[in-house]
Amino acid sequence: MNTSDFRSLHAQYDPDNAEPEREPSVDPNAFVATLHRIGAGAAADGQPWPDTSQSIGRCIALADADCALAGLRAVQEMVLAAERTRQTGADGEYLGDRMMEGLMMACVALTAQVAERLQVRE
User: Fold this and answer.
1) Are 85 and 95 in contact (CB under 8 A)?
2) Domain boundaries in the chain?
3) Could you tell me the pTM of the whole model?
């Protein structure tokens, strides 16, 4: 008689017959693990803020400012590339005024985030 490829239902519900469950390995680069690190104050490089002499709240604020500055740099590089394309590229390659305005609004918002996070609260 052929044996089944599936475990018996009794093995599933009887602890004496059950196979030990393996816990899934936690990949440090997994999406959820990365979200937890960000929530715990990861800086732009994904690591916790290195200065341990500050309070935990201040370290998280500095890490948030670091992330916002990294984002600001990326957006500014896009703005610079778009402006150079407008000046020297073909007309069809320019992003357009609305896209440029959106990029500049992103710069303003990121700058406001940095300024807010760097405020010293007493």
Assistant:
1) yes
2) 28-118
3) 0.65
